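User: I'm designing a mutation panel for Acyltransferase and want to avoid disrupting the core. Could you give me a predicted structure to guide residue selection? Please restate the sequence first so the numbering is unambiguous.

Assistant: Good idea. Sequence first, for numbering, then the predicted structure tokens:
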Amino acid sequence: MVKFAPLSVPWERRLQTFVVLQWIFSFVVLAQICIAVFIGLLFTRFWIFSVLYAVWWYLDLSKPWRGGRRSEALRRCIIWRYMKDYFPILLVKTAHLDPSRNYLAGFHPHGVLATGAFTNLCTESTGFSSLFPGIRPHLMMLNLWFWTPFFRDYIMSGGLVPVDKESAAHILSREGGGNLMAIIVGGVQEALDSRPGGYKLVLRNRKGFIRLALMHGAALVPIFSFGENDVFKQVENSPGSWVRWFQDRLQKIVRVSIPLFYGRGVFQYSFGLMPYRRPITTVVGKPIEVQKTPHPSQEEVDRLHQRYMKELENLFEAHKLKYNVPRDQHLEIC
């Protein structure tokens, strides 16, 4: 039976729903619309707009790999406060980050749409700059989206940068420090296993970010987002199912996989693509000091990786009871 939303919903909650709806829209179809508009304008009397943008795009081609183009006005826009309050989302600081240093943060888990990562690191709605003064956060995203006209400029404005070595090197080697580059380590593979109450991480064989930290002497910061997996459900896609086979094949071909997620609707609570109103608490852990090693050996990478996993587990265990995780629940690291 469909459970409809009451007619007397306060305007504050209606605005929260609208802002999250536009974010879902942006995440799911905005890139495709931007491509269609760019190509479509070429066949109209407004073709000059696409041509001018193409010239700008060519001149600006390397910008995403050079730290992007942040817009503090967009990051601090009031709409993100409504998005934060929808769940709500909270950012928790457990240790000081020295603004004279550069940091490489591992963000866990991915969740379906990386809601906590985006809200905390690409907007100021949870007060990142107030909690960590002098630190500029960057969040890494699949390179594919930075080759999309118009959309690339939108995502760069929030501090998103491509997930590759060139982009990482530019940020982590900046003189003067004050940069935090976050990588959602589990990526799209981890997203496929995101389910309410689940704490399965794809991390055991993900060591590229560890090598980057050693090469640039960037302190490692573990970040865990409690509740990230609770805001959406997924169609059953257990390993061996035809759904999972299709998702894995798609990931191998285009490096993008699509979680078949669902939640609630806008005017009813029974089904739809809107996330559930469930709290997300993102806890930033204590930095792990890293000695700069331009050419780290595999042994050095493995040793630091083991320490990172241990610190992440300690962070999870130290905070889980505060955020409604059962005492007997532990991280499952694959």
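For picking mutation sites, this is relevant: The chain has a mean pLDDT of 94. The longest strand covers residues 219-226.
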